[in-house]
Amino acid sequence: MIDPAQEQEITRVIDEVRTKSGGEIVVVTLRSLEGRPASEVALQIGREWGIGRAGRPGDPARNTGLVVLVAPNDRQVRLETGYGTNAFITAAETGRIQDQYMLPHFRQGDFGTGILLGVTALAQEYAERFGFQLTGQAAPAPQAPRTRPAGAPRGRGFSLGDLIFWIIVIWFITSFFRGGGGGGRRGRRRGWGGPVILPFPIGGGGW
């Protein structure tokens, strides 16, 4: 149905939309719908394939998926939009794109051109919604800056000052148990030379 060169061009447009906006356009061609409505099949595909990223509430790219379903033997085409896509591509707009860009070529048997023009028109809607320009090249996705989670402790290295501090603490505690704990024979513990174990970390992972 689709010429290899046109398939590559369609893929470039889809990749550019995904990279620059997070939206997903999926093209599906079926020999036959086996008597099922195109709207039902496209909706099932969108749900089962998980088209359109989940995202968090308030994310503008949440559920901005779109299925382009073409069944030539049944002479059916369906543009099924996700919940987020409905905000900027209405049913009237999908109808206009079908009538203006896709159906004229479908009637001539040129499905590759019709799908390419339809996908490009849909991609332009994404570009206007998310404020980017279609260039035919998918730019690398921007890397989110690595930030420390809110409330997470700040790690710090184990410095020379830390080492000196703990040597003094250990020396003080050891001296106390060796002879400075009381005034009489019963108040003193002689000959205890074991290690002092501190029940908290002294590394660089924060307190």
Instruction: Output the radius of gyration.
Output: 33 Å
Q: Assign a percent range to the helix content.
A: 40-55%
| Strand residue content | 5-15%
Mean pLDDT: 78
Using the alpha-carbon principal axes, give the shape: elongated
Quote the distance from N terminus to C terminus: 64 Å
Q: Give the uncertain stretches in residue-range form.
A: 139-158, 182-207
According to DSSP, the number of beta strands is 3
Q: Strand arrangement, largest sheet?
A: 1-2-3
The tally of helices reads 5
Look at the helices and sheets and give the structural class: mainly alpha
Which H/E pattern describes the elements?
Answer: HEHEEHHH
Biggest pleated sheet: 3 strands, mixed
Account of the protein in words:
- It is a single chain.
- With 207 residues, the protein is mainly α.
- Helix content is 41%, strand content 9%.
- The chain contains five helices and three strands.
- The protein has helices spanning 4-21, 38-48, 91-106, 111-130, 160-179, and strands at residues 24-29, 65-71, 76-81.
- The chain has a three-stranded mixed β-sheet, with helices on both faces.
- A hairpin with a 4-residue loop joins strand 2 (65-71) and strand 3 (76-81).
- The protein starts with a helix and ends in a 28-residue tail after the last helix.
- Residues 139-158 and 182-207 have low confidence and may be disordered.
